[in-house]
Amino acid sequence: MYVGVDYYPEHWPENMLEKDLDGIKELGANMIRIGEFAWHLMEPEEGKFDFSFFDKVIEEAEKRDLSVMFGTPTATFPAWLAAKHPSILSKDEVGHVRAFGGRRQYCFNSPEYNRYASKITEEVVKHFADEPAVVVWQIDNEFGHEGSDWCFCEHCHTGFHAFLKEKYKTVDELNQRWGTIFWGQTYNSFSEIPMPVPTVTTHNPSLKLDYTRFRSASVNQFAHKMTDITRQHAGKHQPITTNVSGGFFDKAFDHTENVRVMDFVSYDNYPVWGGLTEPIPPAGIAMTHDFNRGLKDQNYWIVEELMGAQGHNVIGYLPRPNQAKMWSYQAFAHGCTNMLYFRWRGMTKGAEQFCFGVVDQDNRYGRKFKEVQSLFSEIQPYEHVLNEKITSDIAVLYDYDNIWSWKSQVQSASFDFNAELLRLYAPFYRHNASIDVIPSDRDFEQYKVLLVPVMQIIDEELAAKLKQFAEAGGTIIFSFRAGLKDRDNNIHFEKTLPGPVAELAGIEIYETEALAAHQTVPVKSTDGQESSGRVWRDLVTAKGAEVLWQYSDEFYQDQAALTLNRTGKGNVYYLATGLDATVLEPLALDVIKNHGIWHTETPEGTEAVKRNGHLFLMNHTGSSQTVCGETLAPFGSKVVKCKEEE
Ligand code: GLA
Ligand code: ZN
């Protein structure tokens, strides 16, 4: 098991190296992660490669039994490369060149960038391939993060045309499937097709979805090329990973495809970043871990675990004492097996002066140092528990085409995909049930419950798999707008909503309404409870399904808001509007109990994860809590062995 820190020795005078490494050892670390932004140091001039600095770092690390994760440095190219080949620079949607000065400003489709990035990757991997201390390679850094997944340059425009030609073969096929007859947009050739850059009103939805798919192909072809080069030259003892950033549902690339060629997934866990005044809610953090575990259906590493407040130009919430440690326990509970904290010491110069580390500018080993030290010593005895595979009875299904379809036309001003996924995820999380978060094209017959949030693109194949799942005894919970569109991002014709799953859900929908952020619609249950719906509402007519909740505002009191269709041996719920936890937590508990799924009740703001005969207990609140019989201090966390009955 590796525990350690992200270390940037190149930021500091060389005479600090040995003392830093001694301090990292004192922390209890056995790994450092280095190199990811140091291209210029390794190639100060074109073709002149010099790895002597990192040779020295690794030599000193080896003396202290510190292993090394080495990052290929293609996220930050040297100024001399941009000066010589400005065409490597990406362009934003209004055609502005992204100037040298930040990071990741390269175009994934630039032939020059691919050539130079391939060369530095080959040279650095070759140089350290036989280095025993270098035990893993990280490719680039957070692909597509900070807006770098998008580019609208000439390379991308011609690449898009080639992408479309490959997909549709003829422009007539494209015209027909895109519906370009609308607004007289019929193309005579692929070369006439624009990128979705600013226009008057809005672009064709099929064009927008296909351009996002092209973005995904662009990011992933580059990632796979760099990975292939690394695999070709790396030592047998050196597996390959890349570090996934937060905001993965907001990115224009399919993360499952991105990491398909990697040996394992790494994740950067920042429950709070920038100007946020509060961390994201515990369920939201937990879901990010379940998503990363789901990418390759295996446990994962964290190579950037937050310890101090973080931000570039604005910072916010300061993690309270032991809160960052508690977030680490939560990560381990959800499948993290090895953890590196970001970062050994905050840097006093450059763009991340306010991205604080384990140690800060005073170079004192203070509270945060002790917090990390205690985590490292407490967690390592549970290595055997952490390496156990996690199996869940519940799975959330997502599909990037569907997410990008919503991005292309949000329909409701208050719609947010991540929030709608959490609307279904959080009620089950609240009962501490284990949940997988997986792509919808993954096999899912082994589950007992499927949560299918706002899946507007449902093709016949998926509809058939879902029907088979329910009839075999599974429970499915759809939320609104299910089955609206086809894979070309167009509305199904002559299919009453919810389209391919109407029969499965036992309902029909004839009218719908978008709700703005300030709007709610009143609903009441058939046993007299009252609540409200947000974001959207489908007006549902039961066609065999049981009505559990219905609208109670004028005109729509005969329309259902939540239905249950018993089909085969299974149950299919349809959530027609954005109902909240007061409705969904009791429903989740019914479903959990109906399937005999392990769960436990804990106080609001606390979490219990059962793994391999142990309970991981986390207190996400600022007050003392009793969780599964254990007293947890504010932001406390611990692992205990399960008592027999648990
Ligand atoms: C990201 C990047 C790091 C650093 C941190 C700062 O995760 O991977 O290089 O920028 O954010 O919080
Ligand atoms: Zn480009």
Automatic annotation (TrEMBL):
- Pfam family for this entry, one: Glyco_hydro_42M
Q: Which residues form the Glycoside hydrolase family 42 N-terminal domain?
A: 6-380
Q: Which residues bind substrate?
A: R103, N141
* CDD domains with a match to the protein in the record: A4_beta-galactosidase_middle_domain
The Beta-galactosidase trimerisation domain extends over 393-597
Q: Which PANTHER family match?
A: BETA-GALACTOSIDASE GANA, BETA-GALACTOSIDASE YESZ
Q: What family does the Swiss-Prot or TrEMBL record give for this protein?
A: Belongs to the glycosyl hydrolase 42 family.
Q: Which branch of life, at top level?
A: Bacteria
Q: What is this protein called?
A: Beta-galactosidase
